[in-house]
Amino acid sequence: MPDVVKPPPAAVLAVCDNGRERPEPVQIGVCGLDAGRAGEPVTWLVRPTAPIAPVMTLRVHGLGDADVAGAPGLPEVWPQVSDVVGGRLLVVHNAGRILGTLAGLPDPGTAGLAGVLDTLRLARHRRVSVGGSYALAPLIAATRVNATPVPRFERADWTALATAALFTHLVTLPPLVPFHILTTWCRADLPPGWPDPSTPEPWPTVLREAPPLALPNPAIGRDR
Q: Which candidate, 55, 103, 161, 165, has a CA 20 to 30 Å from the CA of 13?
């Protein structure tokens, strides 16, 4: 049965934002996910057009305006991210919100993505929550998946690895179901331009022929 559930080849995307009413990325992280195993994350610092809210610096990701002052803007960074994740499924926690921080990109689908899967939506269907919350850090702590402990600051490299671990855990929980069902469970309200993986036909091809993750070299695991 080619579509029996198993973790698919994917790229996991994480974004730290500036905490404004219209959030913008200040750091983007990506890691590969193959056969349920996450690869080393790579991250990019991004200079937003609006300052970083102090609460984000003090309590969330620890990045301030000085950290991103010399970084490129999102239009310059995104082609590099697209090169890394192109042709794979994209796994994101709270995908609608996270991809919404990338608003303004001329064509977010240029990476040739096979679709977007949302671990928050999948957690809801698997009925895995912490006091009714689906925030990533509490889910990681509660499920005790194979991820590094929740750090003081949730930066994009940790978030990508944690999302990969949570996705693998949720996908392999019983009952095991075909991927075309899982994709409906993972379906999020995506911004315009992002591909929908809900059509079942592409799944066997995606599982067999996902391209290798084109990680930059040598800056793996460092902000570019």
A: 55
Our measurement of the distance from residue 39's CA atom to the centroid of its chain's CA atoms, rounded to an integer in Å, reads: 13
Computed from CA positions of residues 71, 77, 80, 85, in that sequence, does the dihedral angle turn out positive or negative? positive
Residue that is written with structure tokens 């998946």 in the block: 145
pLDDT the model gives residue 9:
80
- Output the CA torsion sign for 192, 198, 200, 202: positive
How far apart are the two ends of the chain, measured CA to CA in Å? 41
Banded pLDDT at 216 (limits 50, 70, 90): very low
Cβ atoms of 92 and 116 closer than 8 Å: yes
List CB contacts of 59: < 8 A, sequence separation 6 or more.
Answer: none
Tokens of 177: 């179901």
Instruction: Please count the CA atoms within 13 angstroms of the CA of 222 that sit on its side-chain side.
Output: 6
Angle at 143 between CA 138 and CA 148, to 5 degrees: 75
**pLDDT higher than 90, residue 215:** no
Residue type (1 letter), 185: W
Judge residue 129's burial from the number of C-beta atoms within 10 Å of its C-beta, 0-12 exposed, 13-18 middle, 19 or more buried: middle
Instruction: Flag whether pLDDT at 160 surpasses 80.
Output: yes
* pTM for the model: 0.85
Rounded to whole angstroms, the Cα distance separating 128 from 121 reads 10
